[in-house]
Each structure stands twice: as C-alpha cells, then as structure tokens.
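Handout, section B. The chain below has 593 residues.
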Amino acid sequence: MVKMTHKSVLSFSSYCSYSSRRGMPFLHSTPLVALFHSQSSNPSRSGDTHRGVSNVEDALKVFDEMLHRRPLPSVVRFNQVLAPLVKLKHYPTVLSLNSQMLLSGIRPDHYTLNITINCYCRLNRMDYALSVLAHFFKLGLQPDVATLTTLIHGFVLLNRVADAARLFRKMVVGGHCQPNTITFNTLIKGFCAIRNNTATIQLLGKMEANGCQPDIITYSTIIDSLGKDTLVDEAKNLFSEMVGRGIAPDLVTYNSLIQGVCNLGQWKEVTRLLYEMASQDIFPNVFTFSILVDAFCKDGMVVQAKNVVQIMIQRGIEPDTITYSSLMDGHCLRGEMDKAKQVFDLMVTKGSMVNVQSCSILINGYCKQKKIDKAYKIFKEMPLRGLVPDTVTYTTLIDGFCKEGRLQEAKNLFSEMQDCGQLPNVQTYSIILDGLCNNQQLFEAIEFLREMERNKLKPNVVTYNIVIEGLCNAGEVQSAKDLFCGLSPKGVQPNVRTYTIMINGLCKGGLLVEAEEMLREMEQKGCSPNGCTYNTIIRGYINNNDTSRATSLIEEMSERGFSRDASTMELIVDLLSKDTVDPVLLAWLKDKV
C-alpha cells in the first residue's frame, strides 16, 4: 500500500488552511479536511416519511374500513394503501391484504400485480413472482417495463444475474417492452455485484443505442464497482465522462471514488477530491469519514484515523458502528489490544452499537496476539448482548484455538457452531484440516474432507494442499499422489504450491525421477515453477547425493531469475565443509569463479 508522502501532507495542510478561511475548523496533526460548519446543524438527511399511512397498524385500519364500504372503493385506492407498506418493507402483510382484495372481488390492475411481484421478489420467492405473470394474461393485461424490471431486480437480489440478463435480452429482442434507464441500472447493479465490470461497461455503451440516457445512478454504480476492483483510473475516466455529459456528481459518487483511491493509498488524490467536493458545496457525511478512518487504519496510521473521528464528533456527526469498528481494527492490526478494547468498551457504553462484526474484529485481534482466552471471553459474552456469533466469528476463534495447539477445543467449537445453525464454510473446514494434519490426525482429516464433499461444500485448492502436505509429511506419498491425481477430475486445478508440496513429498520418499517429471509436467500444464519449487527439488537431489543433477537445476533456476534460498545454501556449504568434496560440485564452483 502506498504510504503518505511529505508532499501529500503539505497538500492536505494547504487544504486545511483553505478550509479555515472558509470557516472550517481542522486538526493540524491530521491530513484530512474538517467538516464544514454548514453541515454541523444538519449532519444527515432526514429519513424517508410515508404520507398518509405511516405504520402497519394505520394501514390495516384503513384497509379494513375500505373493505367494508359499499360500494367498494376502486383498486387505485387500495393500491394507495399497499404502496406505503411496501416502502415500510412489510411484504408478507402486503401479500395477505392482496389476497383479501381478490377474495372480495376487487380486480387488480397493472400496479397491483407489480406490487405483488415486487413483494415476492423481496422475499426471494422468484417462483411465485414469475407465476404472477399468468394473472396478467388472464386479466387481459400485458406486463409492462416496470413489471419486467421488477423481475430482473428479483433475479439480481438472488445473485441470479445470468437469468436477469436473459430476461433483459428478451425485452430488447421482443420489441414491445423496451428496457428503460431503470432497467439498465438494475442489470448494471447485478453485474457490478458479481464484479463483471466488462459486461457493465458494455451495457453502459448500449444504453444510448436503446434510447436511454445514463443518469447519476448509472455512473455512480459503475464507479463504485471499478473502485472496489482497484480500477481507479477507469473510475476516474468514467467520472470525467459523466461530468462532461452535464451530470453533476453527488455525495454518493464522490464517496465511491474516494473509496477507490483510498484502497490504493493515494492520499494526494483524496485531498484533491475533498477540495473538489468543497468547491461544489458537497459535504462529507458519516460514510465519507468512515471510509477515511478505515483507509488510515489499514495503512497503519491510527493516530490520523483517531483525529478524523475527533473531527466528526466536533462537527456534530456521530461516528457509527462501522467507524468505530474500523478504528478498533486499526488498533488490532498494530497489536494494540488494550486500545482496541477501549474502543470496544466505548461502543458498549453507547448502547446498541456493538454488533457481530465488531465482536469478530476484537476476537480476531486477540487471536493474532495469541490471547485466545480473552478472545473466547468476548465470544461467550456475545449472547448476553443479544448477538448470535456467525460463521466468521466461529471460524476466527477456531483458527485461534488451532494455532495455539488446542485442537480439541477447536473441534468442540466446530460442533457447537453447527448445533447453533451456523454452517461451516470452506475456510472453516480448511482451518480444522490444517489443525488435524499438524497434529498427525490424518485419518480424521480425511474424514473431514469427505464430510465436506458429502455436504456439497466444494473444497478448493488450498483445502487439498493442506491434506496433501499432511500426507506427504507423514510419509504417505502414495495417498498424496492419489489425492493429487483426483484434483483435475473434480474441477480443481493444482497451483504452484500444490506441485511444490508434491515434489517435496516425492523427494523425501527418494522418488527423484518422479519429482523431476512433475516439475516438467507442471510447466506443460501452464503452471510455471517458482523459486521455492526449484529450491525444493535441488535440496532433494543434494540430500539424495545427486550433486550433478542438483548443479544442473541450480543453473536452470538462475537462468530463470530465481536465487538459492538459505536452506539450499546451507546444504551446499555443508557439502563443501566435508573432508572429501564432491568433484562435480568442485568443478561447478570452479567454473562459476
């Protein structure tokens, strides 16, 4: 990560002076813009309010009164009751009221059916949402762009982006119901969620061809996705394109761009963006400041992060759970566990600010510092705070126990998490497998691996590397070979570490011919050996008294730009210190000199 340069500090300092002239207090010790006075009186936008119906009780009362009127009010009036409930996210209630409408003979219109589809999509019931289409045709209605856009959004919510894209293509090809800007934005959001920025940019290019103009949401969504993938130059180019089109960036756009440049540690660019925001009277909010706190902490600049938090408080912006959790993580990364605990305790005093993630951060910090008992204490206190440990929490603590050699406690915790309904993921299993292999419990490790496969949890190459290395270290080279040979049929491609582990196992077993065959095989399969691979097989030949082949491989390794490591050099020095030095080694050294 790029660290802050002296020039960057000077740039921030000049910005702070500029801020002060505009009546903006700042901290000289931190290279960060202070919050503007004009925001202190209104630190956040007011929340959405719903006119008329403001809660579910009012809605039910109004709905019941309408249902008893004679004649019955029009479907439009009923829709006016349902719509606010959708905004309040009472989806099951809306569906229940809709059923009562149907039983009372109230004929739904386009809007009613679209509301129904939206509720099913929000409840992740795409099967029911799609079935509503039949009601359109039964009533002589045609699904409109809002209908199909809602369905596309439903697929996106379930991460079924391919299905969303198929429905989108049908809209384009069908002709009678062309996608609008909202439709494009919905699918763009889906592609961004799966980090398919190529498809996102292509979709952006197709908008105008389909008579749609990209808006601030379009650009902000893509800029955010590019920033998260550290494609900051592309994000900035898109930002410039947006401005060139006369679309003014808002706070969301700037936050996305600031997040991207912070991820790369480009503090000078952060300063420039903050200047630009100030010139347009766009003021940082809690999310902006949280981004900066997190970035400072990840760069090890916790003092600057704390100064940012102080600025927030001075300006009337209350740091939230994310802000404090980032600060706590910063202290954990520096091993400052007492300070991390102080932040945690401050969050506790503020009420319901502590969540599962903040507990997991503190538990991870204690585990990294080998203070497993303190980590376990935080874990046991979670239910007392009304918090349910999740898979990340359990996995973090299990890893801590394994690294401390307390394997039985790790296994107990593994069983407990499943009893509590928290499903172990690939990382959880890999950690347990590593603990078992390190403790020579290979039979149980193989059983865990099979359990993963039975649970439809696909082990990755890291998982297999752990078990293969465990088998090799235990001298079970044939079993390791069998497991290795079964990887490709399972759709798992061995990486350079996999090959290096196998080569090491074969060398230890005296199978040097097979080891070199594997060295050549890995290149044929597009996996180039690295310095560790070469040093491994060279040591294998030296330990098996084949100095001639070892020197040939040293030559090959040097030609590829790799160097002998300390372990290899130690073996060579050991050979030279013997009473009788191998003539091949002497000739090779003489040639080098």
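Note. The radius of gyration is 31 Å. Compare this with the example in section A.
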